[in-house]
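User: Here's a structure from my thesis project, written as structure tokens. My advisor, Dr. K., wants to see whether a designed sequence matches the one we expressed. Can you design one independently, without my sequence as a hint?
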């Protein structure tokens, strides 16, 4: 299977493009990388931002890394984005995502990906309001896809997240979102399924199984986030941790559903207070373990 790497592990630690690129190539031995907006904020003034964006993409290229996309990180996930309670805030979010598209185009990345946002409690628990926001979001995503096409991107990727105040958040409404958007957007809109979100039990209950997601949504799935988890909270642990996932269970699903062509981006989020030394060691162990047991996608 193809193992890629989301750069979330490097946030607040390794911020020089050349240093991080060489670390990924030589120590982590990962070829496919997904850049996180936590390393470069799309909101920053475009001229200075784009200069930094170019430094990143050129450093990746020099090391032979393949930048397959840029992706929303923790910072952008914190805000309500396209599901904010007012039209004014939703418009700001649309502008934010357009700026992320601009930044991605500068980096020669062919896609952006992100969760869509989160509702305020009072909207999420009001069925009429929920429906209204859903329809508004469909139109905002269509507008974003039009902009993505104009800027030369090939697709937009949506990551289902695990809260009731968010959507999509389960296999059924992920499929519905894909069907509602299908054929109505200027570039294709696809799903990234995060293993840790997909098997979160308190919310999904008996649906907390990757096979449920694949049975429903497989034709729309572009790629995955791979993280270890206990299924109780969204852990983003590395694979030196014990948890609900193990090599055999991952391999079983990959083989049963013929997923070997889709990239599994390892997305580990370490506590900020963890030492850089431990993180370096741990992400290296995790990548080598996955590459050695599940193969492909490395150097
Ligand atoms: Fe994720
Ligand atoms: Mn997650």
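Assistant: Designed independently from the structure alone:
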């Amino acid at each position: 299977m193809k193992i890629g790497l989301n750069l979330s592990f490097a946030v607040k630690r390794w911020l020089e493009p050349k240093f991080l690129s060489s670390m990924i190539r030589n120590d982590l031995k990962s070829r496919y990388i997904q850049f996180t907006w936590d390393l470069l904020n799309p909101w920053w003034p475009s001229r200075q931002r784009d200069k930094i964006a170019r430094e990143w993409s050129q450093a990746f290229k020099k090391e032979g890394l393949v930048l397959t996309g840029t992706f929303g990180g923790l910072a952008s996930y914190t805000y309500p984005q396209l599901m904010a309670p007012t039209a004014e805030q939703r418009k700001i979010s649309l502008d934010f995502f357009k700026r992320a598209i601009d930044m991605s185009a500068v980096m020669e990345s062919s896609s952006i990906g992100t969760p869509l946002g989160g509702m305020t409690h009072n909207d999420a628990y009001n069925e009429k309001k929920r429906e209204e926001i859903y329809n508004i979001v469909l139109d905002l995503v269509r507008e974003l896809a039009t902009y993505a096409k104009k800027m030369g991107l090939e697709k937009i990727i949506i990551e289902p997240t695990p809260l009731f105040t968010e959507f999509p958040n389960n296999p059924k409404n992920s499929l519905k979102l894909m069907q509602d958007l299908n054929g109505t957007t200027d570039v294709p809109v696809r799903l990234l399924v995060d293993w840790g979100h997909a098997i979160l039990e308190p919310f999904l209950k008996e649906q907390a199984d990757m096979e449920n997601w694949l049975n429903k949504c497989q034709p729309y799935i572009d790629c995955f986030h791979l993280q270890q988890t206990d299924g109780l909270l969204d852990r983003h642990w590395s694979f030196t941790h014990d948890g609900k996932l193990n090599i055999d269970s991952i391999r079983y699903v990959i083989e049963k559903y013929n997923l070997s062509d889709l990239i599994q981006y390892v997305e580990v989020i370490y506590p900020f207070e963890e030492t850089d030394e431990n993180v370096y060691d741990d992400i290296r162990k995790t990548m080598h373990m996955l590459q050695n047991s599940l193969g492909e996608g490395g150097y």
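When you compare it with your expressed construct, this may help: Residues 159, 194, 225, 267 surround fe (iii) ion (ligand 1) (CB under 6 Å).
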